[in-house]
Design a protein that fits this description.
2 copies of one chain form a homodimer. By secondary structure, chain A is an alpha+beta fold. The first copy, chain A, is built from 11 helices and 10 strands. Chains A and B meet through helix 1, strand 1, strand 2, strand 3 and helix 3 of A and helix 1, strand 1, strand 2, strand 3 and helix 3 of B. Chains A, B: One of its GO terms (biological process) is thiamine biosynthetic process.
Chain lengths: 321, 321
Amino acid sequence: MSLEPRPHQAMREGAEFDTIRALMARWGDLAVDIGDDAAVLAPSPHGTRVVSVDACVEDVHFRRAWISAREVGVRAAVAALSDLAAMGARAEYVLIAFVIPDAWREELSEVADGMGAVIREAGARIVGGNLSQGAVFSITTTVVGCAQRAVSRSGARAGDLVVVTGLLGGPGAAIQAWDAGESPTAWSRGRFAAPAPRWAEGEALALAGASAMIDISDGLAGDARHVAAASGVRLDLDASRVPAGPGIAAAVAMQSGEEYELLACIPEEAYKKLAMDWAAISIGPLTVVGVVRDGADASPTSTASPVAGGFDHFASVEIPR
Amino acid sequence: MSLEPRPHQAMREGAEFDTIRALMARWGDLAVDIGDDAAVLAPSPHGTRVVSVDACVEDVHFRRAWISAREVGVRAAVAALSDLAAMGARAEYVLIAFVIPDAWREELSEVADGMGAVIREAGARIVGGNLSQGAVFSITTTVVGCAQRAVSRSGARAGDLVVVTGLLGGPGAAIQAWDAGESPTAWSRGRFAAPAPRWAEGEALALAGASAMIDISDGLAGDARHVAAASGVRLDLDASRVPAGPGIAAAVAMQSGEEYELLACIPEEAYKKLAMDWAAISIGPLTVVGVVRDGADASPTSTASPVAGGFDHFASVEIPR
């Protein structure tokens, strides 16, 4: 796939990291622990409070011709809540900031319905937000939740298995089709328009003892690098084991972004126990796709390299089961 | 002043309320208590957790020609933190979601410096955020804080005094000048570009026993109506008592938006005690501008009326001191 910015990409990976580094340099110790999917606030008697924010911008994260207004809402809500799932947290409160051009005014109710359905299913409540007019439609969603055991990106240890939920590649295949002027398959389209929420899976992985977790928003290969960098280890992925959706090539499944499936690192014994219960937790599979290795050679530089290079970096290896 | 949308207005008042009503109709009991400056989450041993989100969009909330990149950051941070001040809460955590066009990439460090300076002064920390490319620059800021005593908009009771912090009218006068192709006074410009944060004042008003509080983002007259509607009372304001900035007409001070000063209702005895200590709390004044009356005639309809009509609605009356 091209390394040029694609419409579904929030920001080219290099540019995003450059910007984050520049911001961190300005903020110094004012900005703490901002590398995870969500921020862990002070622990409470009921668990750890976790908060995250996610933006969905027209013509950046989606195009109006691709999906319905309701699907725009579903997608924005799942994307935001996914950041909590990736910490093992359940959502409790949601705040929604809309920027609304006149052309979207009529459709806002449909967007709201889509968001509402997802938030209701998650068991959370909408407690606030912000409305602004503006030239470009966007939804910025703040989610506040609680984790019995919060899992960051930084705890992966050599020997852990690397697992992923669900089947990958749908969003990438859908965008490839749209970009080529074709229609995506119903399955791929559905994975882009209404990704499956994985909060039950995230909580189960956390409670089972996952050492690190992330949601797959930058693609499996890219997000594996995020975990590797944060944990100071190497994640060796086996492309032949990546669970691709129907008719989807392994390379697409490896790099497809905005999946909102979860990647977790987990000790082998914990994985074996969890795997026995998995059918009661999720209708999707839980698949071992790699292993965590000692990370002397996992430098931040290789982690920030382009996706195509990263794919080579994670050499195919034999994985213990 | 014109009732047409102005560049600094997030949304015309009528349109904003129509949109909120439409959203509430879709969300039903999923959306709770979203009428306040910030949402009150579950109480903790250290106080009540409060969270809010605020957006700052180029060419809606400011124009690039008016203020520097650093001031854009200062203004966005003060606006967001002001919602916590209006609840009597202190900020603890901040999450910042940027949408960044290429033209803003170079200036982002200056924006970050401005936000950082305000957040540091507030004693809060930046714990997360989101970066997205996009055609229009915006900052959506989520603030999480804690209140020893959280004050909503809905507690005003007949007999309470209506007080405001600081001197009003600066942002309105500055925008009037810019719109007329003139230069605003340094004072007015400063009030728009770098509003004074009022968190110490908000906390002091809350602890002194304020019954209702709001930050003046829609103009004194408009925000008084918000409090009146939420509390089921009438707020009678005396235009001759409104503390206007240097050279600023009372009508401008009454209607100038995005002040980020605080309007509070407070029992007279509590006000008298607080007034004696005020000089130690704030360098600005605390001014009695009105009184709360029984609100049989304060219908939601009159509350949602245009600003100019609202100005008539709040007849000038004698105010007890």
